[in-house]
Design a protein that fits this description.
13 helices; mainly alpha; two-stranded antiparallel sheet; globular; two-stranded antiparallel ribbon
């Protein structure tokens, strides 16, 4: 029996290792301008829809940017986060994804693209293009998005919470964060650069309540957080508050800039995963560099977004191009 258990353990480990290799960020088959001949107006159509959306709902910029991250980190950038299921067992219903918003915007973009170029542009590429366009709309950097992804047809509620290959948590320490990025072929620099996307983010009070009221289970606060900031947050977030949201970058959450890094260096990172960036020499050095006069943050963000967009992609004859983003063909 012990031998069987050992063999099962080895097999499980092998499956996990294979899964991790398949998620590596190589991006083979992607290129800038993939739709130049098949749908030359594709990027302009996406840009127009997002411009219209941002004019009336700028608060969707953060969620739509985060959607690309949540998609790519689970099964690769294959649009699996968009899929519905008859009994709510797909990725979008997994706990880490319940706060995602903007699925209807992806549907709106897809509808416009299908009208212009039926069965051509994948939902996975739409998510990647939208992430770039909401960044630009909030005065952030522009980068060339590689396209050519195909859509996956598997989506499981359990994948985002897998302890090895799932999404890193907002309570993750720096070791866990670095490892989570590394197994996907992303560097420690990618980690700290992409964390800068929190400059246009929001978070529910429940995601950091423990830092304010019960950090170690003794009714205490997180000693690594600025006590003055804690006092301000307590005015907004009461114990067991499940509905109130707070800005990850107070005073600047509608503008993509470097102020998130300034807050983290002052011990005002809202989430534990934000504060964790101070606990590694490389990430800490970047926090300081990103707020200096010679900051390369905007350029770096585009590079890291391209890197992330290459994770576990399906290309060529793999996968499919969905007609509707919420269901397989």
């Amino acid at each position: 029996m012990a031998g069987c258990k050992n063999l099962l353990g080895i097999f499980t480990l092998q499956v996990m290792v294979l899964a991790l290799f398949s998620l590596h960020a190589d991006g083979q088959g992607l290129k800038v301008g993939f739709y130049k001949k098949s749908c030359p107006q594709a990027e302009a159509i996406v840009s127009k829809v997002i411009s219209d959306v941002m004019a009336v709902a700028p608060s969707l910029s953060g969620p739509l940017l985060r959607m690309h991250f949540h998609d790519c980190f689970i099964r690769g950038c294959d649009g699996s986060v968009l899929l519905d299921s008859p009994n709510n067992q797909s990725e979008k219903f997994s706990p880490p994804n319940l706060s995602l918003r903007g699925f209807n915007i992806i549907d709106r973009v897809k509808l416009a693209l299908e009208k212009a170029c039926p069965d051509v542009v994948s939902c996975a590429d739409i998510v990647a293009l939208v992430a770039r366009d909401v960044t630009v709309a909030t005065k952030g950097p522009h980068w060339e998005v590689e396209t050519g992804r195909r859509d996956g047809n598997v989506s499981s509620i359990m994948d985002p919470i897998n302890p090895v290959t799932g999404l890193p948590s907002f309570t993750s320490n720096i070791t866990v964060l670095i490892r989570s990025f590394a197994i996907r072929g992303l560097s420690t620099k990618d980690l700290v650069v992409l964390s800068g996307g929190h400059t246009i983010g929001m978070s529910h009070c429940s995601s950091f309540e423990n830092r304010l009221y019960n950090f170690t289970g003794k009714g205490d606060t997180d000693p690594t957080m600025d006590p003055n900031y804690i006092a301000r947050l307590k005015l907004k977030c009461k114990p067991q508050d499940q509905t109130t949201i707070a800005e990850l970058d107070p005073g600047s959450f509608k503008t993509f800039d470097d102020s998130y890094y300034r807050l983290v260096t002052k011990r005002r990172g809202l989430l534990q995963s934000d504060a964790a960036l101070l606990n590694d020499p490389e990430t800490r050095a970047y926090l300081i560099q990103a707020t200096s006069q010679g900051s390369t943050f905007f350029k770096d963000f585009g590079v890291s977004m391209v890197n992330m967009g290459r994770i576990g992609v399906l290309t060529g004859s793999q996968g499919e191009v969905r007609k509707v983003c919420t269901k397989t063909n």
